[in-house]
Amino acid sequence: MLVGAHSIVTLCAWLACWLQVAFSPLAPLLSFGKNALSRHFEFQADAFAANLGYTKLLQSGLVKLQVENLGSLCVDPLYSAYHYSHPPLVERLEALRQLEGSKKQA
Length: 106
Prior knowledge:
Elements: H1 2-22, H2 27-51, H3 55-69, H4 77-83, H5 89-105
Helix pairs in contact: 2-5, 3-5
């Protein structure tokens, strides 16, 4: 029984290594897609909080986090789209302002 379990573990290790090497050329595209999806979900979460009436509190919290984490306000859009899983502060605040404006017009 030990030989069979050892064979399965070895096979899984080889398969994992092979898949990692085989799909490594796709890693940048997969990373970009993963970050784009994550950023989309962040905007959805911000919109949900705004719909509950927490726009000002969310804006305040985001600014506090930005100051505490020493994040940059001037981020290249392409760099942030590829490397950041969360939208930059300026984009999030602008989206919240647009949501607030559309709520006031309605």
